[in-house]
Every structure is written in structure tokens, then in C-alpha cells.
Design goal:
Layout lengths: L9 H16 L11 H28 L3 H4 L1 H5 L3 H14 L7 H7 L2 H17 L4 H15 L8
Helix pairs in contact: 1-2, 5-6, 5-7, 5-8
Length: 154
Amino acid sequence: MSINVHNPYVPRLIAAACRLQELIDSNALFEGYDGDPAKAGHASAVVDEFTAAVGQVSQMEKLNRTSPFVRYRAEIMGGYSTAQRLASLVLHLFNCKWPADIHSLLWNADERHTAIALELLAWYARHGENDRDFMALAGEILKRDHGIDALGTR
């Protein structure tokens, strides 16, 4: 499994792995604690911290493998002006005959919506029309906004 080093939970995972490795290196994880509940509690807490960090990294990695056309569907399909600009961007990526005013999108969008637009562009650059979720969303926008399907029929 490869891990995206830009995942914000990776530093926590590395720190937890280091603490776990210290326990392993000192044999504290395997020798027992002679009934000392504090030492047993410490080992348990380290293992729990590592397990939680692995879970967070895994969850973030799963999100990174999910198409942003799925993750941000609500924002793209929303009825507000920035959502309409995002929908225009999706249509433009689908077929360049549909105009998209990138300047207006980036100028009027807040930081979150700007990040969404850039993520959509980056994902499309990597996956293009091979992303079924992108294709389905573009078809849905065509139907909703123009009353036609992906083939241009009404």
C-alpha cells in the first residue's frame, strides 16, 4: 500500500509508529509488566494510538481514491451561483463546446470552492473520461440544465 505523504495524518502515524517501535525495541511489549498497571496502560495506549492513526490515514487514503465528482456532487449540483459555475466547469471538461468562465469561478469562489475546482481539474487531468462518476455527473447536469442526454438528444 502506498501512502500519500501529503496526507495530514501521516505525521501522527509516524510518531505513533516510533513510540510503538520503542516499546518493541525495549522488549516492553513482549516481556510483560510484572503486574504494573501503569506500564501495561502505557503499552495499551501506544498500541491504541497507533491503531487510531492507521485508521485515520486509511480513511484519508480512501477519500483520495474517491472521485471528486462523487465527493463534491452536492456542491456541484447545488442551486447557488458558485455551484452553477462548478457545474459549467464539469460540462466544459466533458465537452469543450460548453463554455466555462474559469475567471468568474475563481474570482467569486471562496477558498473551499476554489479548492474543489482545482481538485476537479487535477482529477480530470489524470483520469479524463475514464472516470465513470465524472461521465455520469456530466450527463446528469446536461439533462438538468439543458434537457438533453450525453448524446445531445432531448
